[in-house]
Protein 1
Amino acid sequence: MTSDDLKSLILLTFRDPERAARALCSLNLPMAVRWMALALIVSLSALLTWGASMLFPVEVETGMNSAVAQPLMIAGVQFAVLSVTALLMAVVGRSFGGTGDFPDALLLIIWIEFILLLVQCAQVVLMLLFPVIASLMWLVAAAIFVWLMVHFTKALHGFDSAAKVAFGIFATFLAAGMVMAVILSSLGLIPVPA
């Protein structure tokens, strides 16, 4: 894939995300390449997050600040979260009659993370020039994430309704969040209210 192909695919992602998803899946990349791409993208994202925290330190000390200071930990957590997200995208979609599989779901999640990495780069540049606008970029990133998740899931599984896919994604994330809260609280990693 040349740099022109990459630019075309980025533009296609915003113009017609479902066509972009089908184009990505048609690449038929080996599974090892997909895992390497995931490792690369989470490493770059973690390094960018760490670099941004060094450029723009936060005065108030929080748990997030100490986590950001450890890019390997951020990359590891992101790797696990994105892998589970791809697994849920494939398994839940198939349980509702979809036709997609885990390797393609993983590739689409990697691509979404790549697009979000570009948004993160733009945010760092904006922090230098227009800090107020940059602070609102998380809204743009969240909107892009939801929009691409819905359309990529729809394309992956051959679903007809974006609204039903959006509801399914929301319900899946809600259920996964509740399961994670139970697991983390049972391990003593998050406090349980008395």
Protein 2
Amino acid sequence: MYSVNDIVVYRRDVCKVIGKHRSDFSGEMCYILVPYAQQDGSIKMQVPVANKGGHLRDLISRDQIDELIRSTPDIDPLASKPANMKSQYAALLKGDDIRDLIRIIKTSYERNMARVRQNKKTASVDDEYLRRAEKYLFDEISVSLGMSYDESKAFFEEEVAKLTE
């Protein structure tokens, strides 16, 4: 159970718990969440405390980040099937496993680099999902480590590069 001011992840968004109340619609107790980056209260979400969908979880810890970094070289990209890349990316983005973000990043990066080597433009679907996966991954890491988005991205990339040298 979470308390007011706890930082959590709902679906893929880092949020702050600002309160609890009973839903007018379902009668269930709900957390009131605001996106961490927009704590002005303009966007609020109600999430049932029961978390039956399993989409509410703790923010990634430093130990989990270190494990994610160590496992990144072993995370396989998706099979490149141009006809259904968007649906593969979308399915991974709907999940809650942070390693799926790495799979999206690796896949879209590799596909884009292959297109660049062939003197082609990068694919918009790969660009879109690369940006989204990086945003979710590095937003969460930045909040967890108390860094800016850019610092967390540089940190993560440097640590992974050390493993692959």
Protein 3
Amino acid sequence: MKPIAIAKITVDVLMTLALLFLMGYQHWGEAAHEWAGAGMLVLFLAHHILNRGWYKSLLKGRFTPARAFQICVDMLLLIAMLAQMYSGIVMSRHVFAFLPIDGGMALARRLHILGAY
């Protein structure tokens, strides 16, 4: 197996494990949830860098109804993940506490819950 394929699989497995860990917020606490979320942010960026070919081929080829549906689902998931990352950074009390972000906590909390569900 090629090293790039191993890296893709490793990142995907780690993202799955991080997601499962993040869903147990009430068991691990706020600080652990934030650190796992920051790790998920890094893994998310790595995933998209490793799979940048998907973006290059996005508008190429035939658009069947199944492909159009899959792209819509993928875009909605991308939007949800971006909302999670933005709102998580705004609400951060541990990992990103050094950022000078004032206000927006109520919107960030709603956005975080919406993205999670």
Protein 4
Amino acid sequence: MNDNNETKVILPFEYEEDEHYYVEKLGEIPAKPVYSFLKRCIDVVGSVFGLIICFIPMLVIAAAIKLTSPGKVFYSQERLGLNGEKFMLIKFRTMRTDAEKSGAQWSKGKADDRITPIGAFLRKTRIDELPQLWLCLTGKLSLVGPRPERGVFYDEFEKHIHGFSERLKVKPGLTGLAQVCGGYDLRPEEKVVYDVEYIKKRSIFLDIKILFMTVGVILNHDGAR
């Protein structure tokens, strides 16, 4: 992607000039050391298990991407993590290599013509997310948390969704409450409501519940984009 275009944001929807949303201010959130320790244990065990089980399928997917469209197998993009820390998110490439030649573009979902034929299948089944298991192992991501977003979109959304960055108060996740309850087609002002609810109620029980719900979403292909 062309970093020079990062300041130009293309959204499939528009906010009116006087359209504003206000996110609940969370203040300093509780540390929850026992929960944090157990959550990290689940992240490590879960990501190692997932990488082992998915190793051969990931090789097949990589070959399929390489054979069906020009460009790299993996797609990396800068995202914001805990407390706004920048990190590189890695996914299987599902779009053309020139997908953002006009600027940073929010996905149009199924109607997005930048998605490759095999990319549509990978998104529908969420398989494109598998390389992020490595980020869960290294600690940049958790298995469960608000989905990481790009800094340029945080800047854009804060103009109308005041407090959107509250979701940066916990580590982002491979899956989250917004994904299993509303899917990827949620607008940002809807998504952040689920993210704040997760942050307030986060617990091992809730994380495990979200993981099981994620399996259901994958099997039903619900909310994929």
